[in-house]
Design goal:
Elements: E1 11-13, E2 25-29, E3 34-39, E4 42-50, H1 51-62
Antiparallel strand pairs: 1-2, 2-3, 3-4
InterPro entries: DUF397 (IPR007278)
Pfam families: DUF397
Organism: Streptomyces tauricus
Length: about 80
């Protein structure tokens, strides 16, 4: 994706005690109201969503709407 702003500040979603390269998810919030998402193992592949959709997703995670996706998965 060639239209990724150069000035993005990527934030890594990793446990505080995490070491090594991951792979981890990284997020960046653009001035254009877009949220940029990538994996550390493939930083050239970036997907975007709007800030409004991202906020709705986060609220859904906090409300437990996606817990069924991880049922039976042990803590990592």
């Amino acid at each position: 994706m060639s239209d990724i702003p150069a000035n993005l500040a990527w934030e890594r979603a990793a446990p505080p005690e995490a070491t090594g390269p991951g792979p981890w998810i990284e997020l960046a919030f653009g001035d254009d109201e877009l949220v940029y998402i990538r994996e550390t193992s493939d930083p050239e592949t970036v997907v975007t969503t709007t800030r409004k959709k991202w906020d709705a997703f986060v609220l859904g995670v906090q409300a437990g709407e996606f817990d069924h996706f991880v049922e039976g998965v042990e803590d990592m």
